[in-house]
Amino acid sequence: MIGILFHPKIPRALPMAENISGWLEARGKTVWRESVESAENLTPQIADSSLILALGGDGTVLRCVRATAPLQVPVFSINLGKLGFLTEATPDNWQQRLSVVLAGKHRIERRLMLRAIIEREGVQIAELTALNEIVLGRGRQVQIVRFQLFVGGNLVEAYAADSLITATPTGSTAYALAAGGPIMPPELPNFMVVPVAPHLSLDRAIILHEDAEVGIRPIFHHKALATADGQHAVDLQTRDMVRIRRAEHDGLFVRID
Questions:
Q1: For the chain, where do the domains classified as CATH 2.60.200.30 start and end?
Q2: Domain 114-248 is classified in which CATH homologous superfamily?
Q3: How would you write the chain as a 3-class SS string?
Q4: Annotation says 162 is catalytic
């Protein structure tokens, strides 16, 4: 079975999903399709699928992979957005490239993901998963946040900054790059911490081993947030502890060489 997750606010996404459904069904495939905004509630359908098609831009792919990674179902993405860094096909060549996939002439690329546990007074209150990055930062107030960064339980640095980004190699070309971080090859099994606009603090990225655990404690007197891939956010209280490490499951992407 093949699932199609499409961006509901892109006008051509649903007609294309219907077109692809018909194309696949004509080739003997069972197909289901839903809005990507429902992805988190589609665990049974995704678990029964051998492949998920993502129709949209990079944001659609990020949302899709967070749902498929725990079930280890690969994603084939068709770009209907602007940049399409994570996509594999376009509206003009999807038939050709999807035919290659159906013929089994593709490979599966694994992308490291991050898992963040948010603790308040020693009790877990929330969990976030990200393909690109986990960002801790201020809300709407134009005030810096103080962060204590721990690696392996040891205090490494104290920052005063707008935000602190923990990014994967995939996310190294996104927000982390704009903040001055290095570009990492997507297959590299590492992640990094990058401050945004640090004041009298270490202004360079710290590269960490894939097995490292990062602890970040924000200290502030106003609103602050923890955000996954710029899509899911959790309100923080001062001195909450955010523990970040490699997620148990990688994101799986279908690639054609």
A1: 114-248
A2: Probable inorganic polyphosphate/atp-NAD kinase; domain 2 (2.60.200.30)
A3: CEEEEECCCCCCHHHHHHHHHHHHHCCCCCEEEEEHHHHHHCHHHHHCCCEEEEEECHHHHHHHHHHHHHHCCCEEEEECCCCCCCCCECCCCHHHHHHHHHCCCCEEEEECCEEEEEEECCEEEEEEEECCEEEEEECCCCCCEEEEEEECCEEEEEEEECEEEEECCHHHHCHHHHCCCCCCCCCCCEEEEEEECCCCCCCCCEEEECCCEEEEEEECCCCEEEEECCCEEEEECCCCEEEEEECCCCEEEEECC
A4: no
pLDDT digits (tens, 9 = 90+) for 120-165: 999 999 999 999 999 999 766 667 889 999 999 999 999 999 999 9
CB 241 within 8 A of CB 219: no
pLDDT in tens, 229-246: 999 999 999 999 999 999
Cut 0.70: pTM above it = yes
Q: What is the mean pLDDT of residues 187-206?
A: 91
Catalytic, out of 58, 162, 240, 250: 58
CATH of domain 2-105: 3.40.50.10330
Q: Contact 138/174 with Cβ under 8 angstroms?
A: no
From-to residues of CATH 3.40.50.10330 in the chain: 2-105
